[in-house]
Give the backbone structure.
Amino acid sequence: MQVEVARNILEANDAGAEELRQIFARHGLLVLNLMSSPGSGKTTLLERTLTDLREQLRFGVIEGDCQTENDARRVAATGARAVQINTHGGCHLDSAMVREACEQLGLEDLDILIIENVGNLVCPAEFSLGEDAKVTILSVTEGDDKPEKYPFIFSQSRVMLLNKIDLLPYVPFDTARASAFARAVNPELEIFEVAALSGHGMDAWYAWLRKSLEAKRTAR
Amino acid sequence: MHELSLVEGILAIVREEMAKHGLTRLVRVRVKHGELSAVVPEALETAFEVLTVGTDLAGACLEAEMVPLRVRCRQCGEEFSPSEEERFLMPCPACGTELGHHVLSGRELYIDHIEAE
C-alpha cells in the first residue's frame, strides 16, 4: 500500500535546533555559526578575536572537524572555554552534535558561543544549529567568484568576513566583485575586510560582535 | 555530500510511518528535492542502499524526484523558471530585474510517500 508522508527530511535537525535556540535564549547567549572553506582562516580568526577581546567578553567555542583535537587546543590556549567535536568524516555539524557539545562545555558564565563548523561551503549551510547568525569567511586566496559558485551559504549569512586582505598585492582577487556578488544574493549582508593574522580591520568585526550581543540581551 | 545524514533522517521517518500503519516490508520511498536543495540524487540513492543493506529495509529502493525552480519576480510579479545558466542572476523574462525574487518552489526536501506491505 501507498502511504502519503509529506514530512521534511530535516525535521529532526530543525526540532533539535529549535530546542537549542531556546536554551541559548535562556542563557542570554549570542551564538554564531562560523563557516568557510578549509584553510580560509577560521581558527586563526578565532584565536585573534578571543585574544583581543579576552578582557571584555567571555567566549565559549565548539570546534567541529573531521579529525583531531588540534583546533580546540589552539583555541583553549587563548584562555577561552573550548570543546572539540570530531565528525569522523562527516561534512557538517548537526543540532544533536552541538547539543552534546554544549553539555560538555557548559553554557554558564559565557557571553558569546562560537561554533566553528566543518570547513565546507555547501553542507553546513543546510543544517541549523539554533544560532543567532551565520558568519562566513571568504579568504582572498580562494577566488572572488566563490559567492557566485556557492550562493546559498552567502544568502544565509549575516556577515561575510573577507580574510587575508593583506595578501591582495599577490593574488588576483577583486574585492569589489566578490562583495557585489555576495550582496546580490543577500542585500543585508555585512562585509568586513580583515587580516586575522596581523589584526588589520578587526575592530569593525569586534564592534559588530558587541552590537549583536547587546541586541540579543535587550531582546530578552 | 551530506546525503548519508539525509538518509538517516529519511530512514527514521520511514520506520515511524511503517510502524504507525503496521507495515513490515518497504518497497519504495519517494523523495522530492527542490532544484536549489544541495542534493545529488545518485548520491542519495547510493547512501540509501549503503544504509539499508543487511537491515529489515534491505531491497527497498529510493526514488528522488526533482522539483523545478520557480520564482515570482520581485519587481513585476511575473512567474518564471530560470534556466540552469540563468540560475544565479535569474533575469526576469518580462522586465529584466535580476536577483532577490520570491522562490515559489525549488527549496523542497521531503518524503512524498512510501510504498510498503
Q: What stands out?
A: The interface with chain B takes residues 1-13, 90-92, 94, 122-123, 125-127, 148, 151-152, 184-185, 187 of chain A (CB under 8 Å). The longest strand of chain A covers residues 2-8. Residues 11-218 of chain A form a domain with the Rossmann fold fold (CATH 3.40.50.300). The beta strands of chain A are 2-8, 30-35, 59-65, 81-86, 112-116, 133-139, 159-163, 190-193.
